[in-house]
Amino acid sequence: MDNFLASSLKQFHEFKSLGDKTFAQLSDEHLFWQFNPSSNSIALIVKHLHGNMLSRWTDFLHSDGEKEGRDRDMEFENTEMSRAQLITLWNEGWDCLFQALESLNEQDLTKTIFIRGEGHTVLAAIHRQLAHYPYHVGQIVYIGKMCQDEQWSSLSIPKGKSSEFNQEKFGQSKKV
Known about the structure:
Layout: H1 2-25, H2 28-32, H3 42-57, H4 83-102, E1 112-115, E2 118-121, H5 122-148, H6 162-170
Antiparallel strand pairs: 1-2
Helix pairs in contact: 1-4, 1-5, 3-4
């Protein structure tokens, strides 16, 4: 199970990295751009992730994962903020998650925690967020690609480069 914790942490770090690399390619305007009034901007998604992460992972072994002070609806309201403030929210949320997961041991995975009064094992709660956060990071990347269009630098294997990528990978020593 310790492998599960290490693997989960690695995955979460990779998802954060995708967001970081997307932000690096975008102007301040792009962070707040919305396709239409009913869609979310990157800024709104970051606000939502921040709220969710702080709520879920603060004192998560001892208090409900939906904290009383959280105003989820406000996470989806446009508010004035700078790029620096937005990046601070992004980093605070992830830091809260990483600190919580890094404090766990194998025995913690079978403990029961609550989210909105519903019991989950810690393992199930981690799985829940391994589905939730990449969903939103994918939205962030997709919006970034829409904003950058032809100037987008791929975060994975660029179109038309699969053979080249595979040739390079298979030419390396196998790693465990």
